[in-house]
């Protein structure tokens, strides 16, 4: 008999302040219940959610408050561009 396990949700939250930060950084991350809590807080604050499992896996080793490595700049720039466009649609 096959057993199907529900995959645990994983979340990584990014932040970027162009005046203070050299690059975007991880501001929160979690799995399971912590991931659910991060998503709930983001939803309450109207923070856009972007889902990309591959990018999340690439960023999994980055600790909270660490900036993203240069090799991920392009991928993260695409995420921020998507969020910017999404925000523009709802103004």
TrEMBL record:
GO CC entries: plasma membrane
Keyword Lyase: no
The UniProt record lists the keyword Transmembrane helix: no
UniProt keyword annotations, A-Z: Cell projection, Cilium, Flagellum
Gene3D superfamilies on file: secretion proteins EscU (3.40.1690.10)
A single BP term in Gene Ontology: protein secretion
Record-given protein name: Flagellar biosynthesis protein
Species in which this protein is naturally found: Tenuibacillus multivorans
